[in-house]
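Hi V.,

You were right to ask for the full record rather than a summary. Here it is.
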Amino acid sequence: MSYPDATVEQYKQALIFVKDKHHISRGHKYLDLLFAHARSEDGTITASKLAEELGYASFGAVNLSYGKYAHLVAEALSFCPDKRKDKTSMWWSAFSAGNLAGDDTLDGQFEMVMHPALKDALLEMKWVTVE
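Predicted structure:
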């Protein structure tokens, strides 16, 4: 699986570009997802946990929004993700790596592990704080 080879600065530029181009401001569902993910323990969370924390109807709704936002940022980074067997792009990989979770992990589901450079960019921009 390929992931963006983006630096903290490149993520910052891409996030600001997407925010300005698509008029994404505080309180937008895309940012809420990214912020909740960044604040999760070790930057690791499942779509089900995000859905629970943010009031989404299902993990599918989270996956859709997360993927759409990651797609916008991926394009700003000039990152082209790997494709699934059905030829659809795995846009989420612009934001995170994935773990096939076992019984001893968060909730036995697929875990998204935020790329360290993305998390650092969010912290440096003061878009999120981690306690």
